[in-house]
Structure formats: structure tokens, C-alpha cells
Design a protein that fits this description.
binds NADP nicotinamide-adenine-dinucleotide phosphate, EC 1.6.5.5, 7-stranded mixed β-sheet, 9 helices, Rossmann fold, 329 residues, Quinone Oxidoreductase, Chain A, domain 1, alpha/beta
Length: 329
């Protein structure tokens, strides 16, 4: 098969197109003929070697990529419910690698059929895994109730952009986003179902005292600090990433007591393996949200040969939606 390898840790130039042996599915797995592989921030962090000392993390040479769309190539022992050639999308397979390849082996619990859905596979791989995670975060962790309000930081980012559609589907009354100043123009043109998007540099004043029941924060750093002023008794702040790279951020736990607020962590990789039913509900909700246009974002499709460009653009923040790599282009 054709694949893109990170030949060592380093800048985007360490990515190379290589030929590797075709993998076979084991018990409980599906082999996928990949048409589209999503590029995520986590792929960049893996390639840079930021998690290289964490036990179990991939070491070079490895194939980056978490999420793919394609068709069923072969079924491993014990797998039922999928037909050869069926159009599918797959979530991360645990190790967080292997997606930038023309064949991908996925555990069946993270695979969803998109046959007859009418959803473009490039959009499907860009939004369905993130929307499934958003559904789990908003239901299992944030306990979002109908009529509640939601604030989403990094509103146009790959992960964040799945939240407004799922929040709407769950009955949120109001969904507001924050972006950095450089994305205010893109925010004005988004089709995502936000009521309002504001500049995070102007928090908290720009919101004129508005408070939120749920705040989704994959950004961290300064916007996380500012989030506390946007909470009221009963609010839940979901810590779901650290795109700002500020690992020194801290908080005073006594403030939670005094304000009667909740801060909860959400990491799909840690939570989903022990919550397969929540994942399945999330995938089904994500399919409905994507099919009804609640997750429409810009998707740029590039050939495998442009993997270096794809990673450079992610690092330079030169995108308003997601980038997807296609082996057949
Ligand atoms: N909890 C989970 O299970 C889960 C799942 C997926 C992702 N994540 C996490 O969510 C975060 C975003 O991932 P993603 O795949 O959505 O990435 P992405 O598409 O690259 O989006 C990054 C987002 O963070 C914003 N951001 C703010 N400050 C930033 C900075 N200093 N550098 C880079 N970005 C900055 C970006 O804003 P601009 O648009 O203005 O650049 C963008 O909205 C990561 O920390 C990732 O690990 C968590």
C-alpha cells in the first residue's frame, strides 16, 4: 500500500510517501480502502515528537493519521454488519496512527456506515469523528440539558466546529463561539450554527455580562482563565485540549466551591474505550447532524504527495476548516 511516513521526529519535511506491505484485519477489525484521511493537530504534535516520551506512543518511522473515510476492503474474524465495498468512516484506532495510508485497519467499534447518507466522504471524515466526540462530551461529561447555553472556544477549529451542531441537536438555546482576531473574518462567513462569534482577545467584556451553562475549551491558556468570569452557579467548563500550548495553566479549586461551578476533563482517547455504547450513540448522532448540514465546514482535499504542505498549513494556521489527504489524487 501507499502511505505517508514520519521518518523521524521533526518539521514537516520528515514526511515521505513510501510503499508498505498491505495490512490484514485481525479479529474484530475492518480493513478499509482509504479515500480520505483527515489531518489533525494531534498528527502535528506526534510528528514533532511532543509525546515521544509518553509510554506507548508511536516512534519513527510511523504513519500519522487518526481518522479515515473509504470503503470496506475486508472483514476480520467475528465482524458482521458491514458489506465489502460499503462506504464508511472510522474514528481513531487507539494508537492514534496509521491513517495516512491507502489501507487502514480499524477496530469495528469506531466504524460507521455512511452508505446512502449522501454525505461527501471528505466532509464525513472531517466532521463525523469530531461530532461523535462532541456528542459524548456534551452528554456524558457536560450533561447538557435542553434550553441551556454553550460557549465554544476556538470556534472554527476542527474539534470545536463539531460542537455547535451537536449542541443544537441536543436542544441548546444559544451557542456562542470565540476565535482569535485573525479568524474574525472567517467567522463572519461560517455556516456553522453559532448565534454569535466574538474575538477571544476581547473577553470577557465583549459578552456584556452574558454567562453560559457549558463552556467547551480545547484551547487553554488565557481563554481558559477568562472562562471563569463567564460561568454562573451550576456552569460546567469542559477542559478538552490545549491548542494554546500553555501547559503551566492552573486554577484555585476553592473558587469552584465558592462559585458552585464544575470543571471536568474530556479526552476521547481515554474515555471512549470503556464507553462503547456512548461512542455508538455519538456516531449515530454525528451522522444525523452531518446529513442535516449542522456541521458544514470548509474542507481542502490534497493529494498524498502534498502531505508536507498540509502539515505546514496546519502549523501556520493557514486554514478555516480542515485539510484531508487523498491517496488516489
Ligand atoms: N478532548 C478530546 O478528545 C479531543 C479531541 C480532538 C482534539 N482535541 C484537542 O483539541 C485541540 C484542537 O485540536 P483540533 O484538531 O481541533 O486542531 P485545529 O483544527 O488545529 O484547531 C485548533 C484550534 O485552537 C485554536 N488556537 C488558539 N490558540 C492557538 C495556538 N496558540 N496555536 C494553535 N491553535 C490555537 C485555533 O484557532 P485559530 O483557528 O485562530 O488558529 C483553532 O480554533 C487540541 O489540543 C487537540 O488535542 C481534543
Amino acid at each position: 500500500m501507499q502511505a505517508i511516513q514520519a521518518t523521524q521526529f521533526g518539521d514537516p519535511s520528515v514526511l515521505a510517501v513510501v510503499e508498505l506491505p498491505d495490512p490484514m484485519p485481525g479479529p474484530g477489525q475492518i480493513a478499509i480502502d482509504v479515500t480520505h484521511a483527515a489531518v489533525g493537530l494531534i498528527d502535528i504534535l506526534f510528528r514533532q515528537g511532543q509525546f515521544k516520551d509518553v509510554p506507548g506512543m508511536a516512534q519513527p518511522p510511523f504513519v500519522p493519521g487518526l481518522e479515515v473515510a473509504g470503503t470496506v476492503r475486508a472483514l476480520g474474524d467475528g465482524v458482521t454488519g458491514f458489506a465489502i465495498g460499503e462506504k464508511i468512516v472510522s474514528m481513531s484506532a487507539g494508537a492514534g496512527t496509521g491513517g495516512y495510508a491507502s489501507i487502514y485497519i480499524a477496530p469495528v467499534h469506531g466504524v460507521l456506515s455512511i452508505e446512502n447518507s449522501g454525505i461527501d466522504p471528505a466532509l464525513a471524515v472531517s466532521v463525523i469523528p469530531n461530532a461523535a466526540m462532541a456528542h459524548v462530551a456534551l452528554t456524558l461529561v457536560a450533561h447538557l440539558a435542553e434550553g441551556e447555553s454553550v460557549l465554544v472556544h476556538g470556534a472554527l477549529g476542527g474539534f470545536s466546529s463539531a460542537f455547535p451542531g451537536i449542541a443544537r441537536q441536543l436542544g441548546a438555546s444559544r451557542v456562542v463561539g470565540t476565535v482569535r482576531s485573525s479568524k474574525i473574518e472567517a467567522a463572519a462567513n461560517t455556516k456553522l450554527p453559532y448565534d454569535r462569534i466574538v474575538d477571544s482577545a476581547e473577553l470577557p467584556g465583549v459578552l456584556d455580562g452574558e454567562k453560559f451553562d457549558v463552556i467547551i475549551d480545547p484551547v487553554g491558556g488565557t481563554v481558559r482563565s477568562q472562562s471563569f468570569a463567564l460561568m454562573k452557579p451550576g456552569s460546567r467548563l469542559i477542559v478538552a485540549g490545549n491548542a494554546s500550548g500553555d501547559w503551566a495553566h492552573g486554577m484555585k479549586t476553592n473558587d469552584l466551591w465558592l462559585g458552585s461551578t464544575t470543571v471536568a476533563g474530556f479526552n476521547a482517547g481515554a474515555l471512549l474505550p470503556s464507553h462503547p455504547q456512548a461512542l455508538r450513540r455519538g456516531l449515530e448522532a454525528a451522522l444525523k447532524a452531518a446529513a442535516s448540514g449542522l456541521c458544514d465546514i470548509e474542507v481542502d482535499v490534497l493529494p498524498f504527495s502534498a502531505a508536507v504542505t498540509a502539515h505546514e498549513r496546519m502549523e501556520n494556521r493557514d486554514l478555516n476548516g480542515r485539510i484531508v489527504l487523498a491517496p488516489q489524487l
